[in-house]
Amino acid sequence: MQRSMMYAGLLLALAPPAHAQSDTDEEAPRRYRIAIGAQAVPSYPGADHNAVRPLFDFATARGDAQFEYEAADESPNITLYDRHGFEAGIAIGLQSARTQKRVGADLSKVGFSVEPGVFAGYYLTPQLRAYGELRKGVSGHEGVVSMLALDYVQRDGDRWLVAVGPRVNLSDAKYRRAYFGVTQRDAAAVGIPVYRVGDNVVRSVGLASTAIRQLSKRWGLYGYLAYDRLTGDASRSPVTERLGSKNQFSGGLALSYTFGRGVR
């Protein structure tokens, strides 16, 4: 659930700061970092090709506090609680529509999906962060999805940061039916077997890495690479085997700019 839509990022940027540290002096000057670029992500879940979409990131910090780490594949979010290494709040996932044009076959359309939900993150050690999301589609697939992550983070303040860790993506049967099930109608139209999804809630496993490099006081680079391997129902589906791919790659690069009275 990358920051795949610019307007969602802009909306969240106008919300209360997501990374303000509760223990920092409220009177200390604030600084902001905004990154805008492009990313290549799967055109739809299970696709064998990528689409280029905007990449957006926004962070804020106060005083001497460093910008808090957030993985590039996390959904846009608003932190409501942040103390002692634990944070939680609201997450909003977005998933582009699966259309016949994108698939290249007369497969049933899955509309654009908006997925409101919740997230939580906790530092098990100063360098090891556990993170999870739970979201419910209110349009498009209308299913329930979840992402679990564990990241090892190394950094030199705000000068540079590198993080890498495993990912596990879960989904309910409604989601899997939308993207990987094959109805009688689809089977007749596309020439693939009827396929009914089972009880395999693990949709994919993978690895993701986020990197940030400050080039000067204000300018920097922000990027990520990610790989997911479809498993269970998603990997065995004729939609994946004949029209898509089990291997899902994504990555992006953005230029960042830091501003505000706190910049030194």
How are the secondary structure elements laid out?
Elements lengths: L5 H8 L16 E13 L7 E13 L14 E7 L2 E10 L4 H4 L9 E11 L4 E9 L7 E13 L3 E12 L1 H8 L3 H7 L11 E13 L4 E12 L1 H5 L1 H6 L3 E13 L5
Antiparallel strand pairs: 1-2, 1-11, 3-4, 4-5, 5-6, 6-7, 7-8, 8-9, 9-10, 10-11
What features would you describe in this structure?
- The protein is 14% helix and 48% strand.
- The two termini are 33 Å apart.
- The N terminus is likely disordered.
Main features:
single chain, 264 residues, mainly beta, eleven-stranded antiparallel beta sheet, 6 helices, 11 strands, 14% helix, 48% strand, disordered N terminus
The profile of the biggest β sheet is: 11 strands, antiparallel
In whole angstroms, the N-to-C terminal distance is 33 Å
Shape: elongated
The count of β-strands is 11
**Distinct helical segment count:** 6
Rg (CA only): 19 Å
Helicity, as a percent range: 10-25%
Oligomer: single chain
- Spatial arrangement of strands, main beta sheet: 2-1-11-10-9-8-7-6-5-4-3
Tell me, rounded to a whole number, the average pLDDT: 90
Structural class: mainly beta
Short recap of the structure:
The chain is mainly β and 264 residues long. The protein has 6 helices and 11 strands.
